[in-house]
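Hey L., structure's done. Input below.
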Amino acid sequence: MEIITYHKFRKNPKHYLDKVTEDFEPVTIARTNHQNAILMSAEVYHNMCENQYVLENSANREWLQESLNQAHQGQTIQHDLL
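Output:
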């Protein structure tokens, strides 16, 4: 993750907005005497929110863990795509 100063961001915000939306890589904006901020694309943000929603539910986490265990043990079935 790239870390830039607020002043560097302010000089060319379009560059950094394009960078996070094209590369899907957040940028940290470091601020003097203030907390840092993270700039990320809406797509990355929505994906992160969806993952959090799915993983908050213990039943979903257990189902995903069981599926992962089955895959690691080779208990998979191959299907032809339609």
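The mean pLDDT is 94. Residues 42-56 form the longest helix (15 residues).

-- N.
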